[in-house]
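User:
I study polymers; will you set down one protein's sequence and backbone structure tokens?

Assistant:
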Amino acid sequence: MTGIRIAELVMCSVALVAFGWGMTCFFGRSSRPRPLTRAVAALGGLFAAWHLWAIWKSDPNVWQATIAMVLYTLALALFLWAIRTSCRRSLMAIFDNGSPRHLEVDGPFRYLRHPIYVAYMTFWWAGAMASRSWIAAASALVMSWLYVRAARSEEAAFRRSSLVEEHTKYCQRTPFMLPGTKP
């Protein structure tokens, strides 16, 4: 096994451990996990296993591996920055049907309204690059679609909450998911 492949597997695994910790220990729930929440977790586990296997079996390519490592690093850094910023008040789990209790606007939330979902999407695309697998690319598309859908659902929850005015102002100044784009 080459050093490149080991590095890709380590970075993928470290990110998976961090994201798994977030899913089980950090994010709050207002009730039992909804079916869509469980589906995202199940798909994430299945796709993660595929990514690891596909990376293990792939023929290393220095340029693709370098891009994948940069993406894994960015995903992990953005995720940890967002968690550190919001650690005083945990965020709600994906597709939770509870009403938002606070609006986080500091740290990476100053630049993106959904930095954690952006971190997750970046992770999946890193895996597609590292594995050079069309199935991993398809999983990145599926998971990205789910994260955008979750982000839109959360924004709808803010519009129905007592934080609607604060959230509206936040949306006017902060891009949805792509830095540098108009809000």
